[in-house]
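User: Design a sequence. Structure:
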C-alpha cells in the first residue's frame, strides 16, 4: 500500500485529505506543521508528500529545502497544496522543480488523478 504524507496546518483540510486518500486505498498520514512533516518523512519514508505552502514556523518551501538536503528524503515525490494562485508563489514553485501543485479548493477527481499520475511518474509501486 502506498503511503502518502499530508503536511497541512488546517486540521479540517488535513483530516479530509487523509480520509479521501484512505477511501482510495492509500495509507495516509498527517503532520500538522512543517517541522513535524520533515521528521515524519525522515523516519517513515512516504511514497509521496503533499505539503501546504503557507504554514507558520516552517512553510512548505522550508520543508522542501530540508527534505532535498537529506539524501534519505531527497527523491521522495513532492507536491505543494496552495490556496494562493499568486503568480510569484507559482513561479517560485516551478523554479524549485516542482511541476505539480494543487490549488485549493480542488476537484476531488482531478486531485486523485494528479496523485496517481505523480506516483506513476516515479514508478512508486
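Assistant: Done.
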Amino acid at each position: 500500500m502506498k503511503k502518502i504524507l499530508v503536511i497541512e496546518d488546517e486540521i479540517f483540510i488535513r483530516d479530509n485529505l487523509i480520509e479521501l486518500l484512505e477511501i482510495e486505498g492509500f495509507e495516509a498520514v498527517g503532520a500538522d506543521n512543517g517541522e513535524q512533516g520533515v521528521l515524519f518523512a525522515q523516519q517513515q519514508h512516504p511514497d509521496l508528500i503533499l505539503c501546504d505552502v503557507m504554514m507558520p514556523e516552517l512553510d512548505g518551501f522550508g520543508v522542501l529545502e530540508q527534505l532535498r538536503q537529506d539524501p534519505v528524503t531527497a527523491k521522495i515525490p513532492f507536491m505543494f497544496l496552495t490556496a494562493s494562485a499568486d503568480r510569484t508563489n507559482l513561479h517560485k514553485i516551478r523554479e524549485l522543480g516542482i511541476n505539480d501543485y494543487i490549488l485549493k479548493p480542488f476537484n476531488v477527481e482531478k486531485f486523485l488523478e494528479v496523485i496517481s499520475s505523480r506516483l506513476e511518474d516515479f514508478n512508486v509501486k
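The chain has five helices and five strands. The chain has a mean pLDDT of 86.
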